[in-house]
Amino acid sequence: MDEIANKGLEVKRSRKIRDSDIERISVTGYDIELPREHVESELNKLFSSCGEITDVHIPETRNSSLWSHAFIYFVGQGTADKALQLNGSDMGGWTVHAEAYPFLSKNDNCVELEVQGYDTSLSESDIKCELSKLFSSCGKVGHVIICDSFSIVYLVGEDAIDKAPKLSGTDMGGGRKALVRFVAYHGRNIFHPRRHKWRIISGRPDVKPKMAAKMKIIKKPKRTAKKKIIKKPKMTLD
């Protein structure tokens, strides 16, 4: 989990901010050649009247240029609706295009965990069954990635982020003890994630990037087989 997202999670928990109070929008229309700090500052000024802003972020492409979508996070119900009313605002050279960007409810309270200590000789189905039993008091196991010596578990449940790590030390049978390590929180956060799987976030996860232009396929000329030259035998005079 990146430091920004981790900080956001800590602030969210310390202030006891409810998921239902976190809203966000995406913004386009700015010149991607402008400095990022300048665009983020202008967006902050424009939308500050809508409510508490916790994050204004413009991701970068792999070429370190600005992505076309910026992300603005608010705390307070109805703040996103107020922000959408500013769609079309003139920012002195460019026009704001604000779009709704709601959270996916299926990701609420989803925690990613690394688990060790179970019998790795079991079949995949048995391992998943054991892990489901282990976390039954915390929520529902949504997905399990089984590796050689550990598993990645995606657990969905209220307060799972607090309950699941406390299961470290649980007897798994055969003298084995469970080791549960928190990896990442995939639920609602007050900050936009800066990285995902070691790659810079480069756009909205619910929108596939469009190809600016179709690549032309240049066909290489087919090679023609060289004709074999059959030499005629020299005529000799007897």
TrEMBL record:
RRM domain ranges (all copies): 23-99
Highest taxon in the source lineage: Eukaryota
InterPro entries linked to this entry: RRM_dom
An example molecular function term from Gene Ontology annotations: RNA binding
Pfam families with a match to the protein in the record: RRM_1
DNA repair keyword on record: no
Regions annotated as coiled coil: none
Record flagged with keyword Transcription regulation: no
Keywords attached to this entry: RNA-binding
PANTHER family reported in the protein's UniProt record: SERINE/ARGININE-RICH SPLICING FACTOR
Name assigned to this protein: RNA recognition motif domain
